[in-house]
Amino acid sequence: MRDQAENLRMKMLESQGALGRSIAIVSGKGGVGKSNFSTNFAINLTQLGKKVVVLDMDIGMGNVNILIGKTAQFNLKHYLLGEASLDEVIYEGPHNLKYISGGSGMSSVMEWSEDMIDALFYAFEQLQKTFDYILFDMGAGATNWSLDLISAIDEIIVITTEEPTAITDAYSMMKYIHVRDQNKTIYLLCNRAYSKEEGQDTLNRLESTMNHFLKKDVIILGSLPEDPVVRKAVREQVPFSIAYPDSNISKTLKVMVQQFVERNQVEVHGRYKQSTFLSKLRSIFSKGRD
């Protein structure tokens, strides 16, 4: 009976209009600049007039807060426990960017109460009706909880650098994702590239490896250059795309985001492809608690 009610609820949601796209930003290892990319990627989307919310799921780290010089009194855990409302955990960053801190204690879904699960789905429903993009800044590596969430999310951006360990870990992460969902759309980004050629070579090798061993096509998003303004912006706690808009990395990212939006134009709040995020996540939660 509960499943029937939830299915009816989803159909009603979809009949009211297309839902915003969910995107997970992941990496196989830490230190590749994932949160920095997530924050600046999101800001570039807002500068194109998109409504964007970032969920900082890098548990206990709060990197998004640090990068934009903000503090969050409440996080997603407070909301799930009924200690804060959904509006209270949504904070405003620069250029109308909204963000939610993940908080700690989010790793074990099996320990969640029915009320917490209902609250989670209500929150995601509201976010999908409100925003064009929901960006999940995931923690580095793979846990059961993060892989379950990633499996439900519409699209994935995998970040690597030119370092051999980062490349190996990026491939492992894509393999984990592919095993769970062979139809998942995966974008590939090389960050901190010392040259455009080296960055492209890294992406081409990973793309070839995915195609050869897993028969999986990935979409190359591009590469971002190593740029000293990134560290300066982190110290100043201002996103580099705002603090240094004329820098090499800011200009490169701006073009990258424009191309990404153009590619997704018919999918975001369009009638051709509905988000399947919530229905997939409900299925995963149901199986996990059977």
Descriptive notes:
- There is one protein chain.
- By secondary structure, the protein is an alpha/beta fold.
- The model is unreliable at 268-272 (pLDDT under 50).
- It contains 13 helices and 8 strands.
- 50% of the residues lie in helices and 16% in strands.
- Helix 9 links the parallel strand 7 and strand 8 (219-225).
- The longest helix has 19 residues, at 196-214.
- Helix 8 packs parallel to helix 9.
- The chain has an 8-stranded mixed beta sheet with strand order 3-4-2-5-1-6-7-8, with helices on both faces.
Summary keywords:
single chain, 290 residues, 16% strand, alpha/beta, globular
Strand content: 15-25%
Order of helices and strands: HEHEHHHEEHEHEHEHEHHHH
Helix/strand/pairing category:
alpha/beta
The total strand number stands at: 8
| Assembly type | single chain
Q: Level of helix content?
A: 40-55%
Distance between the termini: 15 Å
Averaging pLDDT over every residue, what do you get? 87
Task: Count up the helices.
Answer: 13
